[in-house]
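Extended Data, panel c. Modelled sequence:
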Amino acid sequence: MFLSELKDKLKILRLAREKKELMYQGSRVFIYPDFSYGLTQKRRLFDPVKKKLREMGIRYALLYPSTLRIHIGDEDHLCNSPEEAEAKVLRQIWIRPGSGRLQENLGINTDTKISVDAILLMM
């Protein structure tokens, strides 16, 4: 379905998010925003950072249009570029002793504390 009014599109997307599950005649309906080619390319630039975050077991979300929200502890960090995510957030995270698969995959003793800078250099 094509909607020419941006305000209508935004309202439908907001209501769909709030409702969580939409049904029509017994079938589940999914609503996705349209992304231009340029926006899709901009969002893809976050893929390497998202991969690192997944490997580290860190929760994140790529918000519209292209802002990466990274959840660390009790805080959310918003980053408008992959470089900002790496510089502002990833380098502030410390891998805690015994905290996960990434250390084991890199052959790091899980009883030691290591900075993300060191991990990024190893990758």
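The CA atoms of residues 78 and 84 lie 9 Å apart. This feature is highlighted in the accompanying rendering.
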